[in-house]
What does this fold into?
Amino acid sequence: MSAIPLLMGVINVTPDSFSDGGTFLDPGRAIDHALRLVEDGAAILDIGGESTRPGADDVPVETELARVLPVVRGLAGRTAAAISIDTRKPEVARVCIGEGASIWNDVSALQFGAESLALAARLGCRVVLMHAKGGPRTMQENPRYEDVCVEALAFLESRLETAVRAGIARERLIVDPGIGFGKTLEHNLELLGGLPRFAGLGVPLLVGVSRKRFIGMIGRYGDEEPGPGDRLGGSIAAALAAAAGGASLLRVHDVSATRQALAVAAAIQKYRTRP
Ligand code: HH2
It folds into this structure.
């Protein structure tokens, strides 16, 4: 692990997110939670109004905006943390960036909206380009790859090139291998094990493993697969592995516990001796 990664705290303003759906649908609660995540150590707040869990239904623009906009407005100017809007929709990104968000986190890598590339170039915001195979509705239906790392790398390289050609400065771009987006347990592990290869893309690497299903699958003890709220230990283990693999940003629900684990791992690393 070199530098400690920055933490992006997750705020899902949705009724149906896989781990915290319904908890922060009230804007006041979402804002309080976001400010708490900043106190806990989040450098970025990622606000989402549409669940991208496998099988999730699409949400109309107006509904998504009605969920996220009061939260973006309520946080703008009240926190030193950067505000990120987690959306595939250019209409939602445009309004939220205008109201104080500075990062567009797009799980479709600016492919969902016909005008997304041009809009991101015009807005001058930072952009997260994430790899996914298929959309949320169908992505977990038997995803297949020859080699998931090679495919994700080629996709991200091509999206970076397309984004730069569209006028988005390379310094503004961040990539993400999209853990859990059209991937089996093994694909997720291959990506996490292969993270050092993503350094070759030459832009910061964001990784989101927090509370995801693959952690429940590995963490099964007896008959029960731990649910999203019982995946903290595995989420931290995966976050440490991602940091060791070169991630410079980690998207997490549990900011305080992750920050502490990263700090301890980094402190020990400084004293590591060779046999
Ligand atoms: N994961 C989720 C949502 N957005 N964005 C990036 N860049 N990387 C990720 O891994 C990622 C993401 C899914 O997690 P969550 O927001 O907790 O759930 P839901 O999509 O059900 O709201």
Q: What stands out?
A: The chain has a mean pLDDT of 95.
